[in-house]
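Design request, tokens follow.
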């Protein structure tokens, strides 16, 4: 196991005062890479403590119960901020100002502070005060419109994609701000919306856009690319993308090479083979293909097991869990998963003393 003191973000002090998924998950990523993250929970604890989402938003963190509606809790927070490098929050800006813990106040307490502010629509613009989540970001940002079959309705993905992508975007912003701080000595606010990272995902579809004629849903296909999910003869599925001219030509030749619908020809070829036969044939020709895995298949896959990409762990309180290993991988300072079910602390003085001594 890697030495925590040698982690990439060791020594970085982060206050996570956020709730729900996207913003706390950004702090979790920092904890995975070695940051000392103090999660502030409301009286009685974070509501996610009772769900299996808890390891995603709390692992590797220390937790402190603090009432940010009370003057004493606010004063404790300000004392912690004076010693912190990063604050992560997703409160309405007006509420933070009302409580006296907005960016203007906290940055005056600690001019080197980097404050990550996560919201659905961002800190300005006519929708800035609207509530939202990653799901709302997916819909507003165009991803939902582009997801589904061409003759069917728009669809949301079966996972919290917008929250996870938003968290990763937020971490990029924080690390960029910290790098600039090393040169300038000055902190800054990182304004992360949950719909703008989605725009990066749908940017490919924008290449098909013309005024008044927005791109439509096309199922698993992409215009101009032989790409789809195909059923194999043994009842499984594979995903492939022949994204270059060589890939396309070799795949069509393998599937028969006659004139006609290339996608239909490939589908018929796949249906006549087992999943393993299809994968072996395409891999031998270096055509990108992969099985369409469910979680059980991923946990059993030899490549995933060799890289330890998914961790099967057990929590006494939450039961069996599957957690993704931290990503990306660093050769000298690898990330690690910390305690997956941290207890709720109540000693604010101890938290202050730890940071003051660091």
């Amino acid at each position: 196991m890697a030495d925590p003191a040698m982690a990439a973000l060791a020594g970085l002090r982060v206050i996570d005062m956020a709730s729900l998924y996207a913003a706390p998950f950004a702090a979790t990523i920092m904890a995975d890479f070695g940051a000392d993250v103090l999660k502030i929970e409301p009286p009685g604890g974070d509501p996610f403590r009772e769900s299996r989402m808890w390891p995603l938003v709390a692992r590797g963190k220390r937790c402190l119960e603090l009432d940010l509606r009370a003057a004493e809790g606010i004063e404790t927070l300000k004392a912690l901020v004076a010693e912190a490098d990063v604050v992560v929050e997703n409160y309405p800006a007006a509420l933070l100002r009302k409580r006296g813990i907005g960016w203007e106040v906290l940055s005056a307490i600690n001019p080197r502070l980097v404050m990550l502010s996560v919201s659905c629509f961002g800190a300005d613009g006519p929708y800035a005060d609207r509530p939202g989540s990653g799901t709302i970001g997916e819909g507003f940002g165009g991803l939902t419109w582009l997801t589904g079959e061409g003759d069917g309705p728009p669809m949301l993905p079966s996972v919290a994609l917008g929250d996870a992508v938003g968290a990763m975007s937020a971490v990029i912003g924080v690390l960029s701000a910290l790098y600039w701080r090393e040169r300038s000595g000055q902190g800054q606010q990182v304004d992360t919306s949950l719909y703008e990272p989605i725009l990066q995902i749908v940017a490919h579809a924008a290449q098909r856009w013309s005024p008044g004629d927005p791109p439509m849903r096309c199922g698993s296909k992409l215009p101009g690319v032989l790409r789809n999910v195909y059923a194999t003869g043994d009842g499984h599925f594979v995903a492939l993308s022949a994204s270059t001219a060589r890939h396309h030509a070799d795949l069509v030749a393998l599937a028969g090479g006659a004139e006609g619908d290339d996608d239909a020809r490939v589908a018929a070829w796949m249906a006549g083979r087992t999943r393993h036969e299809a994968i072996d044939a395409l891999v031998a020709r270096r055509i990108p293909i992969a099985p369409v895995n469910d979680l059980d298949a991923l946990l059993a896959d030899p490549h995933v097991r060799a890289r330890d990409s998914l961790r099967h762990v057990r929590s006494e309180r939450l039961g069996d869990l599957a957690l993704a290993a931290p990503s990306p991988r660093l050769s000298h300072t690898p990330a690690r998963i910390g305690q997956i079910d941290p207890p709720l602390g109540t000693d604010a003085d101890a938290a202050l003393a730890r940071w003051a001594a660091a």
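Comment from the thread starter after seeing the answer: thanks! The two ends are 23 Å apart (CA to CA).
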